[in-house]
Amino acid sequence: MKLDIEGVEKRYGDARALSDVTLRFTDGVVGLLGPNGAGKSTLLRIVTALTEPTDGTVRWNGTDIVETPRAIREAVGYLPQKFGVYPNLTAEEFLSYLAGIRGVRNPDDRIEDLLDLVNLSSDRNRRLGTFSGGMRQRVGIAQALLSDPSLLVVDEPTVGLDPEERIRFRNILAELGEERIVVLSTHIVPDVEATASDIAVLDGGRVVAHEPPSDLIDRSHGSVWERVVSDAALDDVRAAHTVCRTTRCRDGVRVRIVSDDRPADADPVEPTLEDAYLHLLDGRPRQ
Fold first, then answer.
1. What digits encode the pLDDT tens for the residues 214-270?
2. What integer pLDDT is reported at residue 166 of this predicted model?
3. Which residues contact residue 93 at a Cβ distance below 8 angstroms, ignoring those fewer than 6 apart?
4. Which residues are CB-contacts of 61 (< 8 A; sequence separation ≥ 6)?
5. Contact present, 30 and 154 (Cβ < 8 Å)
6. pLDDT lower than 70: segments of the chain
7. Pairing relationship of beta strands 198-203 and 206-211 according to DSSP bridges
8. What is the C-alpha to C-alpha distance for residues 159 and 170, in angstroms, rounded to an integer?
9. CA distance 54 to 164
10. Global confidence as pTM
């Protein structure tokens, strides 16, 4: 299985959402990282044939999906960032309804398997309006898998989830990536760190990196530091450096800094993927 994105651009009038995006994805979980507004959702809408690129091509196993959108529509399962449900339907009724629309063969068996996969078998007869955000997201994954897609695309799937639900969701995606391409789009770095074997980073509509997480981390060695400062000095440190994290300690505040130059009184530390991501984006933390 291959998804080839070549020279893709997307413009809305004079505004350019994507510029010369070229990527190749194969089996496994691919993390699509970037700050809000980087163009991730626009790229996913192009990849799923919901919108066409202004320029460039997207090929699924060699077939141009602009010329033949059916090729990707038959292969893809999609969980958009905003996923709506019918609150008065139960989980089983909702999936049965969608399976009928999509022409899924043997839908009862498929729904049974999917409810088990997302750990909702015991809640199958509860109305969706009573579900937590994490449970609804798991229903979202189940509906995206109804047709047993070769390509699964999920957009910001863990936003708003509590830590336990986030971990459960990551585990599901990692399992699914063993048999298909999973494109996980997010600005939450730990979600990618826990699941992806390949990472593409978008910033300002452009690809600024595409490599394994370990390679991205290696590039930030020697640029991550920690030092302990007083509460009174913390604002000055924030003004002078990119601060990734602060933790309270006995002697004050332990500050983790991304900087190519060694800050005063700081010790080098091993970088994480989040450190490497901030370092890649010019050391500017994004909201």
1. 999 999 999 999 999 999 999 999 999 999 999 999 999 999 999 999 999 999 999
2. 86
3. none
4. 1, 2, 71
5. no
6. 282-287
7. antiparallel
8. 12
9. 40
10. 0.88
| Alpha-carbon span 285 to 243, nearest angstrom | 8
| pLDDT value of residue 17 | 97
Q: Whose CA is closest to 47, among 8, 86, 93, 95?
A: 8
| pLDDT score, position 287 | 41
Domain positions in the chain are 2-212, 222-269
**pLDDT computed for residue 81 by the predictor:** 85
Task: Fill in the amino acid letter for 39.
Answer: G
Q: Which amino acid is at 245?
A: R
Amino acid (1-letter code) at residue 149: P
The helix (H) or strand (E) run that includes residue 217 is: helix 213-218
Classify residue 38 as exposed, middle or buried by CB count within 10 Å of its CB (0-12, 13-18, 19+).
buried
d(CA 142, CA 113): 9
Whose CA is closest to 79, among 224, 223, 176, 198?
176
Q: Which CATH class is domain 2-212?
A: alpha beta
DSSP state of 85: -
pLDDT number for residue 163: 86
Q: Do 279 and 269 touch, CB atoms closer than 8 A?
A: no
Estimate the share of the chain in helix, then strand, then coil, as percent rounded to the nearest 5: 35, 30, 35
For tokens 């826990």, the residue is: 194
The reported pLDDT for the residue numbered 78 is 96
Residue 153's identity, in one-letter code, is V
φ, ψ of residue 7 to 5 degrees: the values are 60, 35
Residues in CB range of 79: below 8 A, 6 or more apart = 137, 140, 141, 143, 144, 152, 153, 154, 155, 157
- The gap from C-alpha 223 to its chain's centroid, in whole angstroms, comes to 25
What pLDDT shows up at residue 285? Answer: 45
Cα separation, 3 vs 190, in Å, equals 24
